[in-house]
Amino acid sequence: MNESRPPPAEGDVNVSPARAEWRASLSDAARAALDEDERYFLRQSLSTPCLAPIVRAEGAVLTDVDGRRIFDFHGNSVHQFGHGHPKVVAAIRREMEALPFCPRRFANAPATALARCLVETAPHGLDKVLFAPSGAAAISMALKLARYATGRHKTLSLWDSFHGANLDAIGVGGEALFRRGLGPMIPGAEHLPPLNLARRFFGDDKPFERFADYIDYALEVQGDVSALIAEPVRWTTVEAPPREFWPRVKDSCRRHGALLIFDEIPSCLARAGTLYACEQFATTPDILVLGKGLGGGIMPLAAVLAAARLDCAPDAALGHYTHEKSPVACAAGLATLEVIEEEKLIDRANTLGQRGLERLQGMQTRYPVIRDVRGLGCYFGVEIGGDDPAGLAERLMYRCLKRGLSFKIGGENVVTLCPPLTIPFEQFDEALSIFEEALCG
Ligand SMILES: Cc1ncc(COP(=O)(O)O)c(C=O)c1O
User: Fold this and answer.
1) What is the 5 CA–ligand 1 centroid distance (Å)?
2) From ligand 1's centre to the CA of 413, what distance in Å?
3) What is the C-alpha separation between 211 and 408, in angstroms, rounded?
4) What distance in angstroms lies between residue 90's CA and the mean position of ligand 1's atoms?
5) Is residue 377 within 6 Å of ligand 1 at its C-beta?
């Protein structure tokens, strides 16, 4: 590679006017740092071009190189208790000094303790655990386990879903962006409509009952599906089905010999207002996949929890990951569960959830561009309407960034707001005021 080759200009990428204006607002130092980033990293959708170079992440606030303070309501959904919680940092430091790594075939206390804690806190019947270094890797293990347990390979999953960006996870996922240009996906991955389009495909009269009937039919007519995998609540659009839906689907899976896998990677661990999101849907899956905040927002850590009867593949390599029992990541996980309990973060998620919903619903009455407001625990989706919903959502994102609030846009036009559960009320209110100001222009 020619060392003197300049980084690709922003013009190489499809840059919107809102993006160009944002970049122009950065200092020379910030722009130079972004150019340096682009010079060395392969570009990829949704990650590049970067927004700004940041130098601190503390609590609910990111600080960029220009000294701009930005409330982090994005955080890749890892930051249940903000960035750098002292208890998690201390646990990581301690474990790094004591046991920085655990080679395969050895046991270690933090890993065993975290596995025990997860089993003890998870809905009854999820008694076995495996850890993985990423959500996508844990999804891979869940899919393999379902194949071994059922002797079948087919899956049912939802169009427009996301379960990670590894090839197998993309195969069961349904987001076009991730599949485009990759050629054939894994065989036997059948797809169903997404939750947010239930009405479009099943009508206004009891759409979810008809959707559940359709799933039952799809499982029956094939007769050889290993698992149905889904998020209990679709995270990008904050779309939750009615409470009766998942129990019916679970029952269909049981009758047709398929397993139910819930992907709670972003929604687990108090974020949804319960420790595990599935508690709100009266459904314990056969396999539950956790991730993101499990590592305290610092360590990469995900987990598969499974019914003990699925411990059926001792001769198979389900994960075989180098960091399959990382003592440091597991120490962070243990500290995470302790912080959730000590700081009563489930209650806090519900209090903030109520406060946020009321505020956002108030905005909905004042700003017709807000088509809908949804929430689950301390997580909110604001669906933008109007003539150009996706364009406006993007403009809102940049307007908010300039004023000090970062968030993610899901499903093209849903502003998703994911604050730390520990955020002080004043900061929470201030961040929502920034959003309201941005709605005004
Ligand atoms: C629902 C869901 N599943 C799986 C994943 C993949 O997790 P990871 O990025 O840790 O591989 C994500 C990440 O955003 C997710 O939101």
Assistant:
1) 34
2) 20
3) 29
4) 26
5) no
Q: How far apart are CA 407 and CA 432, in angstroms?
A: 11
Contact 196, 230 (CB under 8 A): no
User: Residue 204, exposed/middle/buried by CB under 10 A (0-12, 13-18, 19+)?
Assistant: exposed
Q: What tens digit of pLDDT does each residue of 129-144 get?
A: 999 999 999 999 999 9
pLDDT tens-digit map of 98-112: 999 999 999 999 999
Q: Give, for ligand 1, the residue of 233, 265, 323 to mutate: max count of ligand atoms closer than 8 Å to Cβ.
A: 265
Pairing of strands 408-410, 61-64: unpaired
Is residue 163 in contact with ligand 1, taking CB distance under 6 Å?
yes
**Secondary structure (DSSP) of 318-374:** S---TTTT-HHHHHHHHHHHHHHHHTTHHHHHHHHHHHHHHHHHHHHHH-TTEEEEE
pTM of the model: 0.96
Check residue 262 and report its DSSP letter: E
348 closest CA partner among 268, 429, 273, 267: 273
Does ligand 1 lie within 6 Å of residue 168's CB atom?
no
Return all residues near 236 (Cβ < 8 A) that are at least 6 apart.
162, 410, 411, 414, 416
Q: Is the CB of 419 under 6 A from ligand 1?
A: no
Q: How far is the CA of 261 from the centre of ligand 1 (A)?
A: 14
When pLDDT is cut at 50, 70 and 90, the band that residue 10 belongs to is low
265 Cβ closer than 6 Å to some ligand 1 atom: yes
In degrees and rounded to multiples of 5, residue 61 shows phi and psi of -120, 135
Please tell me if the CB atom of residue 164 comes closer than 6 angstroms to any atom of ligand 1. yes
Cβ-based burial of 187 (10 A; exposed 0-12, middle 13-18, buried ≥19):
exposed
Kindly state the DSSP code that residue 189 receives in the 8-state scheme. Answer: E
136 C-beta closer than 6 A to ligand 1: yes
